[in-house]
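[Discussion] Sanity-checking designs against the backbone

I'm trying to build intuition for which residues belong where. Below is a structure token string of 143 positions. I'd appreciate it if someone posts a full sequence so I can compare it with mine line by line.
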């Protein structure tokens, strides 16, 4: 079963996700980030400049079908249509809805900002995961 963790009260989602991805990469995790096109494009740009002395190896695409063979081992994938087919065990969700195929991942991380619309959508996702019988961890950022 997928382990779910909600990270609440994130002041700057983009910066927080960059730091989260850096930590995951340093730990050897393979991560897929799901989001809408604009959010993922913005995150992609930020990952290129986030850490001036360190490159976070990532690839931005619609789905795994577009991933070039030479980049098959890329540990951080930003995908419109998430998939765990390449051994990526962690899914970071930046969508307002429950991400497709989340059950294929060992771990799901939900990053929730301070915006009321984001918090309301997160409550709906929480209810979905709880209804599916998944254990949920709650993390208060900055608490």
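Best answer:
Here's mine. Compare freely.
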């Amino acid at each position: 079963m997928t382990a779910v963790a909600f990270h609440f009260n994130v002041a700057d989602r983009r910066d927080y996700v960059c730091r989260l991805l850096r930590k995951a990469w340093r730990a050897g995790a393979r991560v897929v980030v799901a989001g809408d096109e604009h959010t993922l494009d913005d995150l992609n740009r930020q990952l290129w400049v986030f850490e001036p002395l360190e490159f976070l190896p990532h690839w931005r695409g619609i789905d795994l079908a577009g991933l070039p063979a030479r980049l098959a081992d890329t540990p951080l994938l930003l995908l419109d249509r998430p998939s765990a087919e390449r051994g990526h065990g962690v899914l970071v969700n930046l969508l307002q809805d429950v991400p497709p195929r989340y059950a294929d991942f060992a771990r799901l991380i939900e990053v929730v900002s301070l915006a009321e619309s984001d918090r309301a959508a997160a409550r709906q996702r929480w209810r979905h995961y709880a209804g599916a019988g998944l254990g949920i961890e709650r993390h208060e950022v900055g608490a």
